[in-house]
Structure formats: C-alpha cells, structure tokens
Amino acid sequence: MEHDNLFSFSDLPNSFDVSRQRTLKRRDFITAVEAAIQGGKKDRDLKIERLDAIAAQGVDDLSSAKLMRLYTAYMDLHAFDRMITLYKKAENKDFKDAPMVREELAVAYRKIKRGDERNPDVLANKMFDYKLSMQISQDLINEGHGYGVSYENIGRCNRYIAQRSTGFQADQYYANSLFALEEGFARTLESSVGIQAVHANILAGNTDKARELAKVVYLATLRDGAEESNDYFCTSAALQVACIADVGKKEIEHLCGRLENTVTHPWELPDILRDLEKIGEGFPSPSLALAQKRLKAANERRLTMDKMPKARAADTGASASYTTWDKRSFAEDPKLCAVIEKSYSYRGCGSAFRGANRISGNMAFGGQLPDHAVSRKDLRLFEGLVAMSPNELGIKPDKPVKGVDMDKPMTDIRDPEAFILLADRFIRQTFSTESFANSGLHMENNAFDKDPKTGESLYDTTVKSVLQATGKVIGERDKNVDSRTNISAIFALGMGDCRHHAQVKQIMFDTWQKKQMDASLQTMCRRILRGGRIDKDDHDIADFYSVLDTEMRTADIQVMMPVKMQQKDGKDQLYKPEKTADGKYIVDESGKNHSLEEHTLCWLIRKNRSHKLVSFGIRDAFYQQLHYPWAKMDVNIDDIRLNKNGSPIIPAGQISGDKTSTGKSVPVMQYPAVYNSGKRDSFIKDTTGRDINLVGLPMAGFKTPQDFLKMIKDREGMFAIMAQVRAKAAERAKTKDISLLKKAKMGARA
C-alpha cells in the first residue's frame, strides 16, 4: 500500500531514481484525471463516469495527493456521493486525517441530495446527514483545526434542520445556527463565515447588528486582498457587505468586475444573485440594485455562451470568466494602479476553501524554475516564526535595531521598517546570501560570475542537481509535471536566489501584518457581538487602515541601464554587459536602456484613504551590498513614470562614475519583466493543505514551527546535503557520458 512516504532532506542524495518513478506515476495519474474532466458543462454525467473508472482501478495504494485530486474533481462536479464513497474506501491515513479533507467531507454530507424529502424516510436520512456533517465539523474544532468553513457548516446545517422543524425545536436550531456563525467569525475572522453570520442576523431580524457586523466582514475581505482577489468566496463576501454599507458606484462596479473575473463554476453567479436578493430584504440600496443589474447581465451572457456550439463560442472569444475585466484596485491614481497591477502579495492565500495557492514557474515548458506554492501549512509555519523573538530565531543584526526588544516576539514590533530590517537579516543568514553554502560565492554576484566553461555558478549547479534528485528532467516539456515547491521547503534547505529571498520576505511581512490587523478586527467584532457599534471615526478602524494601507508587494522586474551589452546575432545578451579591460561598464551614449538581468524583489508602498499613492520604496532582501543598494531606497513618486502600456518605470538609483567608461554616473531603472502579470496565483487541487513539497517531493520535518526552525538553523547540515546531491548528480552525469561514448564507438565499428 502506498502511503505518503515522505522524503527528508538527507534522503535527497540517494533519491534520484526513486523520485523519478514517483514523478512519472503521479504525472500519469493526474493526466488521467485531467482527461476525465474535459468537456462541456452538459457532459457532467460522462465526466463522473470517467472518474469512476479511475477509482475502480483501486484506491488502496494511492497517495494523499492522488486521492485529493480525485476527491476535488468529484467536488467540482458536485458529485458529493462519490466524495463520501471515496473517503470511506481510501485507506491512506494522511488523506483521511487531513483537516481540509474532512472539512470537505462535512460539506459533502450537508449538500448530498437524498430524494424527495416529503417521504419521511428520505427526510430522516437527510436529517442524519446534517447531524453527521455537524459532528465532523465539531470534531475538527475540538482538535484545534477550527477554520471558518467548519463553523459555517455547523451554522448552515442548524439552519437547514430548523427549516425542517417546528415550534421550540425550530427556534433552538435557528439560535444554534446564529451562535455558531457569530462565534466562528469572532474566532477565525474569515469573511466566508462572517458573511453567513450577517445573513443569519438578517434572517433573525437583527438588522442593526447585521449592518455593524457587515462593516467588520468588509474589513476582513480587504485584509485578504478583495480589491485584486481571484477567490470567488472572498470577492462574493466583499460585494455583499459593500452593498449593505451602500459604499457607492465605483466600488460596487469594481467588485462586480472582480467577481465576474473569478467565476469558474455555473452555480456561482446564481448563488451570489440569491444572496443579494436576501440582502435586499433588509438593506435595499442603490448599490444593491447596481450589483444585481450587473450580475444578472453577466449571468445572461453565461447562459447564452453555454448554449452556443463550441466552435461559435470560440469565435466569439467566450471564456470561463465571461468578462475581460482585470482591474486590480479601487484606485483611480494611475501610478498606484500600475504598481499594484505589476506586483503581488500573499494576502488571502491558503483560504479555508482551498488548500494552497500556486504561482507557476516554467518547468512545464522545459525550464528550471519550479512552481512555488503557499499553503495553509506554510502560513501556520511562518506565523509560528514571527511569533518568536529575534533571539529565538537566531537573528544577528549588524547593529541594534531601535525600539526592538530582541527577547520579545516579532509580532510585538509595530514599526514596519524595523520588522523588515530583522526579516532581511534572518533571510540572508538562512540563504547564506553573502557566502552560498560557505563556498565564498556572494549570491549578489550569481547573475554575473559564471564559470566560463559551463556558464554556471556553484548555485546554478546545485539547483540543477536538486531538480534531478527530485526526479525532474531539465528541458523536458510536460504540462502535468509536479514541480510544486513550498516556500517553507526552499527556506529550510537554504537554496535561494532573488526570487526566494522576495517570497520569504513577502510571506513573513504578510503574516506579521495580518496579526496586526486581526487585533483590530477582533476588538471590533467582540464589541458588536456584545451589542456595541463602530463608526467611521473609530480608533480601531483607524489602526486597521494604518496597517492595511502599508503594503509589501513582490515584483518581477528587468534591471535597465544605458550601458552596452555583448551582442549575438544583433541581439543583446542577457546578463552580459560589455565592459572595458579594467571591468567598467561601457556607456551607451545614445541613452538607450538595456536589460542587464531579470530580478525579483519587494516594493513597499503606502496609500491614503483616498486611494492615492503617498510613498514608494524599494525593499530588496537580495541586492544590498555589491551592485545596487536596494535594502532601503525610497523613491520620489513624482519620478515614477508610466510607459505607453501603463506599466510603471521605477528610478532605482545610479551606478557611480568609477564603474563606467565615461567616469560619469548612469541611472538604474526597474521595468516590469515581460512575464510580469501581477497577482497570478491559481488554486492547487491535489493538496491536503498540510503537505510541504520540494519540486514535487512531499517532505518530512515540518510538523511544527519549532521543527521548521530547527532545520533553518542547521545550515552546516543543509550545506552538506547540497554538496552530496551535487556530487551524486556529477557522478551520474559522468556515467551517462561514458555510456553514450561506448554506444557511439560501437555504432562507428558497425
């Protein structure tokens, strides 16, 4: 029986062949599932039959990732009976114990249809489903896994039982529903359960309480990035509470556009329209009328497209989203919009309804950049780290940080700049930025200092070796290859270039910030549940916005300078500036900017309540010492330009005259990279939300933040593992070369 046989980092040097076999087996399974669910919406029954055929081959030996992909495929088709059957048949303990799997099982029991409930036996079975569903959710809460979806499920089940009951019993179930939803929101601060608490209060006639609670739910959606979210549940909640608050045309139009852009399933638009109708019973408003009109029109377009023959739909440009809307911000400020649209954060990742979010790399196209992922587990691990003190983390700053007690939790720090400084030091220590794996290679030189024979640095060789150890073949195009790499895994190993420096910095900042915002939300929520109110001048709201309006954003950029590049076939060679004999940049006297490299870094932006950009800064964890002083560089907003496509052009300092052929300094600019499309994460459907992967390999050692920290601190151990992997990869390559040489000689003799 195949269980989740996890790899430890020490297994990597000897895992080449084993991991390759696992990679191929998983790829073949995922390919089969993806093929099974191809087709139109009318092919639902056929898709389920195909999935059933896969399940019929046996589930006893499936890993949790394979089981989860089959499970979520059934879920997307609303085949709740199949989900329940699969769960019962599965023997993989890691799958069956996973909180997210059990959450979805509880939802399946709630949603499964048993037939005509006018039949007493059918009704009795359905009532049993509701009670079993609630028990699963309550067990999760009791075990310390109480996410919003469990409280929401208990609330919904109680309400459905109440609707099928009478008298005192019905009243009691309605009361239980309201309590579960309110308590769930107060404990988790998740908007998905918060909006249900608002609906429950509307149903109970508590309109004042519903209005006040909606204000906090709205703030929770903003905390989770509702302005730019690709998550239907977050955006749906944001629109509903915005209608209750009657925020105005601009914001409603924006949220409607975002919602249309997130729609992937045919039930979603009708679902939000029903919710808006319920809101209208207690809170009719111009905002509500506008939202209903806009989404009814979108739903009509959806229905029209669904009826089209496939060829005709393709001709019209019909897509799953039914819209071309992709605006990312409420703002009208062109510079703020441009910055947001060309960057991203992890706000809202790892929500209760999804196990993980992924940003695609290029391995599916033959490249060597894996997909990177943020899961519930990553969030919990990094939340654990930022709850520790700098001394516990082993952070050794170059000088004392003003206003910071090194023995108190990082979450006690209020100044973002102080937090950033300490986070940078922690990241650079862990990635051994200033001497990769004690080799002497300063990672800031990695893009420029390559071996003339191989064209690679020690870091490049290490990356390729690890890819091989995890079963991947560089240059092989394979859309279903699993290259998922959790941020936690790459940080624990300590093998990171600029991308990983930025990713770790982003998740640390976002988890730290969420803690600050949650403190304000918690205070306001508890006050409302005790019968209080909040107003626009409330100091807790002011505290919340002061944190919300300061954002760390990760951006993929091109470093541009007016210096000449080496040429090949009349084209600039990336990373290869033309230099004088004494190593100085040769200035392009025409002033034309050339791309020295592609780079990933963090920006720090601040906006005001009028949605205007008020400050912009470069806060790079990577380039700090050698080439660009980007650890803390503030940029005058007036100096930021927009190109003809509306992308931001960021002035990023200068290269001094002692490094140029003319003796004069030249400006450095940051342009968004060609592939930069801002927030572009997608949901991962084959994760239980508790797994940590390294290039597709499920890794051990991440049970607690303390376990995580232990690996982070074991730098010498990780350096040794990377050296062993490199040596093993080199040995295998040499053996392969000898084998090929022998074959060539034999062919020549023949």
Structure explained in plain terms:
The protein is an alpha+beta fold and 750 residues long. It has 26 helices and 15 strands. Strands 9-8-7-4-12-11-10 form a 7-stranded antiparallel beta sheet. Strands 3-2-1-13 form a 4-stranded mixed beta sheet. Strands 5-6 form a two-stranded antiparallel sheet. Strand 10 and strand 11 form a beta hairpin. The longest helix is centred in the C-terminal third of the chain and has 35 residues. It starts with 15 loop residues before the first helix and ends with a helix.
Give a quick rundown of the structure.
The chain has 750 residues and is α+β, with helices and mostly antiparallel strands. The chain contains 26 helices and 15 strands. Helix 7 (120-142) packs antiparallel against helix 8.
